[in-house]
Amino acid sequence: MRSRREDYSESTRSALVDSAVKLFTKRGYTGTSLDEIARRARVTKGALYHHFSGKQALFEAAFDAVESQVHGKLDKILRGDEPPWERALRGLREFIASCLDPAYQRIAIHEAPVVMGWQRWREAEDRYSFGLIRSSLEDLIAAGEIDHVNVEITARLLFGALLSAATEIANSAEPEKVGSQIEDGIVHLLHLVRRRPE
What we know:
Elements: H1 4-27, H2 34-41, H3 45-51, H4 55-78, H5 84-99, H6 102-115, H7 118-142, H8 151-171, H9 175-193
InterPro entries: DNA-bd_HTH_TetR-type_CS, Homeodomain-like_sf, HTH-type_TetR-like_transc_reg, HTH_TetR, Rv0078-like_C, Tet_transcr_reg_TetR-rel_C_sf
Organism: Prauserella shujinwangii
Protein name: TetR family transcriptional regulator
């Protein structure tokens, strides 16, 4: 059983991460101070430093929180009871919807490559997204929806396309319109590789 102190510590950390997500979304990394994050979370700066070594560590926790939320939704869809083809299309739509979310756009797409460095950001995206894409491809092949392909290479190609799509949506003056166009384009490409009934 957790102690009251452990519960308080966890609630303090959660408040800090929640505060960081909101402020980084609104003002970006450079426009947000640790003082503001602590004040919004209603904790002392000392409490903040008890949980995080600095601003970058807190940003990475905010990034993980945003990515975990998106990953959780996608994982639930892709492991659902529907046939693999329908799960893949629903997963794509959910990913596009996530790209329209201001927190995901600002933290995961705009800020993270700069704050974390491109290599670390790419590794983190790999950790969150690549496994889902690979397992979805494996399900589609097992169900006979697409031909046997090199799963690793094909998943990498799709992963790159989806990262590019996310960037296009986040950088667009009309993200909903661009998101819809990207969804249509990817669905069209998926239909091109779908096996036809014999």
